[in-house]
């Protein structure tokens, strides 16, 4: 089954991303030194997600406002351009631009277009310039101004009626983009505590729904659940299985059965690496992954021997989501292919640049060295 996938992005004037144009791939493992734009790219996608969900204004406020978010001393506006593949149709092209207005901003332009047979110019689903907002009205077969109150601080895409199919698909794809940071495993972390039994599709950003997710998955999708337990057995040879003992009305705990112990281990008895690997395996095997999934430093606390399994889980998940990963791990890169690795670096002006590793003429080097060794030697860039 073909998926709606983002095939390219262009970001102008956002933090380190002064003018970055990037072809997208199913699996994107970003490498590079600190301060070269990896976090900026993840945050740019988070902002895109917020813009499609009608939360652009609060998200920009959380980031410090538009003037603090624009490329410092190098940009007077901020713009985003996204191309998305649409099964059985031509791709969609979406562009919008923000300009500062006092302490706030205005959306100076926003266009959602698509090449269609029989049209000399790209067909436009949305065409907005400042306060002149227009949507394509199906019944009238032309661009019309909205008949509802339009919020000028939010994108037209986030406010278009859901009956308009193509804008809704793009909105769904962008708004579902989810960013995950490394898992909290402190003494009172949600992942260590009993959790309420309920049907959920994800283990939660902080593992707050890991237990009900795994329990519900075991009951509703045993094949997918078995894949998670198989991953745990591959990572930890003495692992037997997981169990879900009730601890109070409507509350479940999670226990780990191990050949080395006569009694099961509770989550608070597991190591940080074990907890994070359970959460990562559950997340990457979720049958309801968002169209874009971002994970920042998934290798944290994992033993180097687990990184090969993590790479396999990432690769399998990339068949169901566009997976964007930021990593500092040389060892993880060893288990990836050049076409899966995006090298982030800076040009002479201090602006971020991005190059796919398979475009760097590494074939002769790969005949003698592994990909992580080539990166360590500085042959790929992306190092301080």
Write structural notes for this entry.
By secondary structure, this protein is an alpha+beta fold. It folds into two domains: 127 residues, no CATH class; 157 residues, P-loop containing nucleotide triphosphate hydrolases (Rossmann fold), CATH 3.40.50.300. The chain is 26% helix and 29% strand. It has eleven helices and 20 strands. The strands form five sheets. The protein has a six-stranded antiparallel beta sheet with strand order 2-1-4-5-6-7. Strands 10-17-18-3-19-20 form a six-stranded mixed beta sheet. A three-stranded antiparallel beta sheet has the order 11-14-13, covered by helices on one side. The two termini are 41 Å apart.
* Overall tally of structural domains: 2
- Which strand-content bin applies to the residues? 25-35%
Fill in the CATH topology of the largest domain: Rossmann fold
Largest sheet: 6 strands, antiparallel
CATH architecture of the largest domain: 3-Layer(aba) Sandwich
Largest sheet strand order: 2-1-4-5-6-7
Q: What is the total tally of β strands?
A: 20
Percentage of residues in helical conformation: 25-40%
Please write the CATH class name of the largest domain. Answer: Alpha Beta
- CATH superfamily assignment of the largest domain? P-loop containing nucleotide triphosphate hydrolases
Mean pLDDT: 92
Distance between the termini: 41 Å
Please mark out the parts with pLDDT under 50 across 5 or more consecutive residues, or reply none.
Answer: none
Q: Based on helices, strands and strand pairing, what is the structural class? A: alpha+beta
What kind of assembly state do the chains in view correspond to? single chain
Rounded to the nearest angstrom, the radius of gyration is 23 Å
Shape: globular
Tally of contiguous helical segments: 11
């Amino acid at each position: 089954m073909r998926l709606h996938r983002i095939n390219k992005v262009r970001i102008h004037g956002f933090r380190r991303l002064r003018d970055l144009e990037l072809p997208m791939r199913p699996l994107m493992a970003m490498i590079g030194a600190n301060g070269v734009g990896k976090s900026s790219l993840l945050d740019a996608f988070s902002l895109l997600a917020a813009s499609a969900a009608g939360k652009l204004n609060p998200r920009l406020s959380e980031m410090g406002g538009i003037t603090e978010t624009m490329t410092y001393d190098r940009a007077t506006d901020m713009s985003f351009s996204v191309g998305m593949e649409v099964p059985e149709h031509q791709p969609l092209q979406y562009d919008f631009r923000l300009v500062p207005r006092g302490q706030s901003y205005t959306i100076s332009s926003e266009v959602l277009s698509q090449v269609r047979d029989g049209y000399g110019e790209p067909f436009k689903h949305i065409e907005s310039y400042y306060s002149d907002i227009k949507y394509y009205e199906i019944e009238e077969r032309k661009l019309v101004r909205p008949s509802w109150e339009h919020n000028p601080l939010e994108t037209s895409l986030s406010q278009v009626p859901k009956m308009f199919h193509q804008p809704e698909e793009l909105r769904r794809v962008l708004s579902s983009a989810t960013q995950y940071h490394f898992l909290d495993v402190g003494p009172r972390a949600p992942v260590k505590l009993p959790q309420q039994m309920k049907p959920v599709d994800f283990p939660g950003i902080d593992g707050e729904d890991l237990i009900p997710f795994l329990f519900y998955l075991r009951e509703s999708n045993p094949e997918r659940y078995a894949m998670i337990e198989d991953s745990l057995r591959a990572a930890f040879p003495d692992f037997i299985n997981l169990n879900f003992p009730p601890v109070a009305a409507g509350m479940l705990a999670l226990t780990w059965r191990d050949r080395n112990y006569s009694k099961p281990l509770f989550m608070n008895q597991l190591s940080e690496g074990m907890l994070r690997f359970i959460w990562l395996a559950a997340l990457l095997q979720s049958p309801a992954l968002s169209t874009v999934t971002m994970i920042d430093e998934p290798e944290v606390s994992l033993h180097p021997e687990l990184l090969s399994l993590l790479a396999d889980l990432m690769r399998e998940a990339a068949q169901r989501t566009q997976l964007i990963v930021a990593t500092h791990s040389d060892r993880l890169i060893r288990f990836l292919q050049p076409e899966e690795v995006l090298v982030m670096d800076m040009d002479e002006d201090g602006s971020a640049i991005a190059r796919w590793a398979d475009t760097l003429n590494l074939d002769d080097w790969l005949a003698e060295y592994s990909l992580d060794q080539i990166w360590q030697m500085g042959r790929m860039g992306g190092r301080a």
